[in-house]
Each structure stands twice: as C-alpha cells, then as structure tokens.
Design a protein that fits this description.
Structural class: mainly alpha
Radius of gyration: 30 Å
Oligomer: single chain
Shape: elongated
Number of helices: 5
Distance between the termini: 81 Å
Number of strands: 0
Order of helices and strands: HHHHH
Largest sheet: none
Strand content: under 5%
C-alpha cells in the first residue's frame, strides 16, 4: 500500500497528463503512438496507476513538451535537508598534515619497494 501523499501525487500527475493531452488537441491514438505505450497503459497513466513504469511517465512528459523534469527531482539544489547534513559534517577547521616523526627525521619509506637487483656484481 502506498502512502496517501504518493497516491495523491500520482493521481494528480495522471490528471495533468490527461489535461495536457487535451490542451494540445491530441487524441489518445496520436499520443500512444508517440509515447509508445498501449491504449490500456495510457488510460492507466491518466489515472495515475503506480504500476506503470516510470519510463512511460517520463516519455509522456517529454512527448508533451515538458522536457526531462525527472532528472532534476532529486538534484542537490532541491535538497535543503541533505545540504544541511553535508554542512554539519564539514570539519570546523582544516590543518596541514604533520611531518613524519621517525627517528632521525627521515621519511617513512616502509611502503617503497627495494631497488631491483641487476644480477651483475661490481
């Protein structure tokens, strides 16, 4: 079972698709050919059926001239909660990495492989 706000949003989307089709004076036959769905699928879309694929809804919006609005729905610019969480995770200050504290002040070369042996002795 879907939450009520999701059901209402899908129902509204379906009604908006039906209204947009009629405003453009497109018949169902014209639109299903362009969207490449069957007539029963289109009617389910106009009712906001949640079992219809997201791709079919996206193609319908594109065909009706809405571009590709699904690409921006979860964009970071529309996510103030996520931006706030990112901001809260930022360090209070950034410091330089500390130099190695090995005896003699040298660098830690433990992960550097030894030089290859040539096989010739001097």
């Amino acid at each position: 079972m879907l939450p009520m706000p999701v059901t209402k949003a899908l129902t509204k989307l379906g009604q908006d698709l039906a209204d947009a089709r009629r405003r453009r004076s497109l018949t169902v036959d014209m639109l299903i050919q362009r969207v490449q769905v069957s007539r029963p699928t289109w009617y389910r879309m106009e009712k906001g059926d949640p079992t219809v694929s997201l791709a079919a809804y996206a193609m319908a919006m594109f065909t009706l001239g809405y571009g590709a609005p699904l690409g921006d729905i979860c964009d970071v610019s529309h996510d103030p909660s996520g931006q706030r969480m990112d901001r809260d995770r930022l360090p209070k200050r950034v410091t330089r990495p500390r130099p190695s504290r090995l005896p003699g002040g040298g660098e830690d070369l433990s992960d550097v492989p030894p030089p290859a042996q040539s096989g010739m002795e001097p």
